[in-house]
Amino acid sequence: MISLYLAEDQSMLNSALTQILNLEDDLQVLGSAEDGATAWTQIQKLQPDVAILDIEMPQMTGLEVASQIQASALKTKVIILTTFAQSTYFQQAVAAKVAGYLLKDSPSDDLIAVIRQVMTGKTVYAPELVVNMVSAEHNPLTDREMAVLAEADSGLPTKQIAATLFLSEGTVRNYLSAIFSKLGVHNRLEAIQVAKKNKWMR
Amino acid sequence: MISLYLAEDQSMLNSALTQILNLEDDLQVLGSAEDGATAWTQIQKLQPDVAILDIEMPQMTGLEVASQIQASALKTKVIILTTFAQSTYFQQAVAAKVAGYLLKDSPSDDLIAVIRQVMTGKTVYAPELVVNMVSAEHNPLTDREMAVLAEADSGLPTKQIAATLFLSEGTVRNYLSAIFSKLGVHNRLEAIQVAKKNKWMR
DNA sequence: AAATAGCTGTGACATTTGTCATGTTGGTCA
DNA sequence: TGACCAACATGACAAATGTCACAGCTATTT
Fold first, then answer.
1. Same domain for B89 and B150?
2. What is the pLDDT of residues B165-193, one digit of tens each?
3. Chain A residues inside the 8 Å CB shell of B17
4. Taking each helix axis from N to C terminus, what angle separates B188-197 and B169-183, rounded to the nearest 10 degrees?
């Protein structure tokens, strides 16, 4: 019997998955949560064989919970279950040594299959991710440039950006100009869009 | 026996719901799709008692499918199942005379309950929506202003906006200026953010 | 030691953006 | 009919933004 814990903040999916997982003879859901913090507390208490974690949840992300599990050397194996194939998320997940990474864009039977596989010691990643990894454009912007762009994203004018980052206005304009030429655009709005499309910022 | 059709583009949820709905003695899922277009074709063919539709789907949104169903005078009742409580979506759904509007932020048992209720002729809306409706800020921008803002959102400079909307540059700047003063901001980026936060645009 | 890359700055300039006053036209509503 | 508002426009001005060239400083790499 494989014991499970499920953390997923979308109630509809949470309850539906809990039910179908419990239908399997060899699977048992010990509990479920709709936010990361309660999930982490419960996981420590229940010590399930496998924790199925969504990434974007209130209070604590699934990735944070995964890191905690790893840091505490629990025997619990982690499967990340998320919507998007963002390579940054995936990289963090690999860093936290998760046993599986599955997209919500796969049928529920896949989840069941993955659960059984990780219990045999295998590591299972959604194939979409590996493809995405290699083809992912790498961010040409420097840390400082990203910082400036992030401020610009909140709609601040040059003066405010300069103030919050302790730079001169000229420098901020220079950074923005450099960003534009690197990204092949001519204004802040477009630059932000390109950066978001490439998942360099959210 | 109540016959159902399910349109939901997230496979995980689609397959999980299909399974648990089929577990109920009085419910039967005739089929399911992951995009609006196939859903609409299938619904015409199968004529289910109830169609459960996600809104954001490839090819055709759930709201479009709902309108088609209404226009064709099918006996199929529609339940919209979606993530966010956006009042614009909700209003469109009401306009399309849907029988139910449920958030994914409710457990799957609620869905089952709602299915049975709409079959008795009731109309069921998630309570969160009614609350949201009254408290929702209404959009102070005119149609034309919205059109300009939409173009601005794609990062186009004034000249391009003017060209695509067949306006003079001055008019475009005027509209933007009017928008800013209505929204209490001073640049495009902020205006777009306010508009999106208030769900006036996506 | 030299080359490279990132970080910071200045100054000057052209262009774009935002503001304001003002006007015409057409539709709606009391 | 008169008041009002949306749509569209011009012109003029101030402010913000974007571009370019140039330069000094500090790490890191070769």
1. no
2. 888 888 889 888 888 888 888 898 988 88
3. 12, 16
4. 50
